[in-house]
Inverse folding.
């Protein structure tokens, strides 16, 4: 019935899979933090009202007795700190990084914004990052859990477009996984797509991205995937700039 049957995994979604230069995984993580935070600040600005209230409270505390000021400072330290919006999850694999995203960040919106900026400017604000693959949710890489993942990712999208029939393609990438074959994955996921939608391998309207890494399976639905060079920032900049991309960055492209 799609109920999770495996123990909690360290890698969990939603988030973004990142292909990077071999041996530069740590630098890629740092670049991801900078890039993602920059874009997220535009799309989902942090509420500054709380910070202003805290600042006003500090000014008012100056007129209070020292004992009260100390008590207020202790209480302030006990307040839970704001959790980071992006967290690196260890993959222990060369050229592969996974950054989990916390609400309200939508990994699809973030990645599309990033690659469209590169498409418009030809500037890649990274030396190590190549390809970005957003996943809206993840589960264990086994068929019962994948059924639940399909309901979680596919049903909400198609329910937003009642009566409309889409052409789609399942874009599957499997790494370090040999339990389920590629044909099995594709056939099983296709069976979970609501009836009436058709498979189109050349120029589909929708792309169902499926990333299988070891024991984890992630999924998302995107559009314009081919037009945006499969979210490969190096390839987008290469097209924009007529091939003026450094050899080091191209050699390990996804």
């Amino acid at each position: 019935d799609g109920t999770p049957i495996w123990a909690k995994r360290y890698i969990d979604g939603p988030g973004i899979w990142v292909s990077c230069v071999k041996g530069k995984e740590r630098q890629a993580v740092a670049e991801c933090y900078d890039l993602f935070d920059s874009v997220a600040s535009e799309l989902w600005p942090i509420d500054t009202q709380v910070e202003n209230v805290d600042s006003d409270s500090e000014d008012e505390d100056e007129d209070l007795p020292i004992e009260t000021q100390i008590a207020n400072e202790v209480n302030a330290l006990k307040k839970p700190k704001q959790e980071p919006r992006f967290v690196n999850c260890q993959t222990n694999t060369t050229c592969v990084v996974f950054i989990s995203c916390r609400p309200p960040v939508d990994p699809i919106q973030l990645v599309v914004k990033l690659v469209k900026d590169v498409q418009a400017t030809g500037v890649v604000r990274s030396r190590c990052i190549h390809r970005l693959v957003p996943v809206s949710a993840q589960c264990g890489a086994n068929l019962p859990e994948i059924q639940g993942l399909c309901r979680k990712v596919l049903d909400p999208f198609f329910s937003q477009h009642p009566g409309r029939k889409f052409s789609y393609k399942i874009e599957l990438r499997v790494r370090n996984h040999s339990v389920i074959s590629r044909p099995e994955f594709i056939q099983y996921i296709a069976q979970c797509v609501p009836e009436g939608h058709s498979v189109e391998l050349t120029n589909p309207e929708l792309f169902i991205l499926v990333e299988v890494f070891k024991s984890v399976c992630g999924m998302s639905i995107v559009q314009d995937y081919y037009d945006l060079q499969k979210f490969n920032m190096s390839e987008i900049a290469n097209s924009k700039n007529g091939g003026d991309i450094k050899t080091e960055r191209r050699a390990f492209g996804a």
User: Anything to note?
Assistant: Residues 1-9, 246-254 have pLDDT under 50 and may be disordered. The chain has two domains: 15-44+86-251, 49-78. DSSP finds eight helices and nine strands in the chain.
